[in-house]
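Feature request, filed as a ticket because there's no other form

It would be nice if the structure record came with a short human-readable summary line next to the tokens. Right now we just get the raw output. Example of a typical job, pasted below so the devs can see what we mean:
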Amino acid sequence: MGRMNHRISGCHGFVVIPDGETIQAAKDLVRRMVPNAKNKMEDYVHLSLYYAMLEMASPELIGEVLQILRTKLIGKEISLGSVQVYAGHYLDWVLDVDLPDLNNAHYASLASLDLHRAEKFSTFQIDGFQDLNPREQANMERYDHPLVLEQFRQQLTLASDPQGIELESTTVRRVGMIADVHFVRFGMWECIEHVLSQPSAKN
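Raw output as currently delivered:
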């Protein structure tokens, strides 16, 4: 599908993309709150459904799951509230009302990608996450990601910094919409290196 015409290896996953006005609001928050953060997600504000180091994943499977996720999510309303630091390094804008369809999409993403997850890789160990609780640590060891299953957080990632981010939580309310779902390759610190999927035909 699109740019995926061979089996996929490396750190990849599914991400939710909000509408353009919400992206602009997120950029404004980053510039105001953490202007010196090393990694600003200005080009790719996103909500991660799940990502991991994959080995020889089938593009046909990825395409089928992506189509399901898009059908379930595009056009859904999201209500954003708290802006807070996670694990000492990430600035997130958290949904103040959980969307059940996002939870279902997370489980679908996890189930599909876990089939092709490479052994002995942990993005979070490499990224040097701090202060994980016992459940997050167990998830990291099993799934290479602490925020899975009941620990999944519905949040837009706004920025990251290997040196850490220190900021008091604040509330910035906004109602937006899910504009698309993409399959992407991740670099370090939640940064998206490349978009493998084509935009949805709905956009």
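Something like this underneath would help us a lot:
The chain has a mean pLDDT of 85.
Helices lie at 20-33, 59-73, 100-114, 123-127, 134-143.
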